[in-house]
């Protein structure tokens, strides 16, 4: 039986500035978000959470806030965070790291209490995964408390791009595709940490192509009005060959040209419908 993934969204945009710390405290007291306002900082929160089997995702923008966590009996989850933009200060067991733009970090929740502070505005994605799902895929996953992974890593960029293409759409709402997403994310996290030869080979076949295709589709959708949206330009931006892009779309039974044309037609239709709606409203005045 497939279970529909659950989700939660919240933003302080509509909350008066002076009331935001109180609202943040209420979220913590109700067990919704383990965060605290930082003293003498502007507070901003705009997040979305997804709860999938074998994967928790927390994505959004934080400012003037500290995310906290403590070990709990029977919980050996790993937390993998990516600073998409901005920086953070991560502390666990008297160790401190300061990931910057694009950097990632991993901590073992069972290793001790931790805190992730974001004094300035930071856009991030946080992934919570069972340790027993990642350990078999990674070489020597030691019981360390905290590790930083440079954002220049191709694996981190690939994971960040894959997640960025997912979180803005409805893919996570479908249980069939959500299960596939969990598998891909596990593979990509393992690559970031140092996958075993076997796990790297599996990821090369199933998850890396999926991540690259998702990133390429997101790029196309963001640039549909660009007349120079050629396969050569797309391939260059993603540091692959045009032939590789062709093969990615062939795996889905379509072509690059067909995908772009279909998306442009949908975009034109949607724009035309919006104009028609406005004209109808004006006529009724």
Structural account:
The structure is a single chain. The chain has 285 residues and is an alpha+beta fold. It has a single domain (6-222), classed as Jelly Rolls (Sandwich). 41% of the residues lie in helices and 24% in strands. The protein has 8 helices and 12 strands. The protein has a 7-stranded antiparallel sheet with strand order 1-3-4-11-6-9-12. The N and C termini lie far apart (52 Å).
Annotation, overall tally of beta strands: 12
The profile of the biggest β sheet is: 7 strands, antiparallel
Task: Provide the structure class.
Answer: alpha+beta
Output the radius of gyration. 21 Å
Question: Would you tell me the overall average pLDDT?
Answer: 87
Number of domains: 1
* CATH-defined fold name: Jelly Rolls
Number of helices: 8
| CA-based shape | globular
Strand order of the largest sheet: 1-3-4-11-6-9-12
- Please name the CATH architecture: Sandwich
- Percent of residues in helical segments? 40-55%
How far apart are the first and last residues' alpha carbons, in Å?
Answer: 52 Å
- Summarize the helix and strand pattern as letters: EHEEEEEEEEEEHEHHHHHH
The fraction of residues assigned to DSSP E strands is 15-25%
Determine the CATH superfamily. Jelly Rolls
Uncertain spans, ≥5 residues at pLDDT below 50?
none
CATH class identity: Mainly Beta
Task: Throw out a few tags for this protein.
Jelly Rolls, alpha+beta, seven-stranded antiparallel β-sheet, 285 residues, five-stranded antiparallel β-sheet, 12 strands, 8 helices
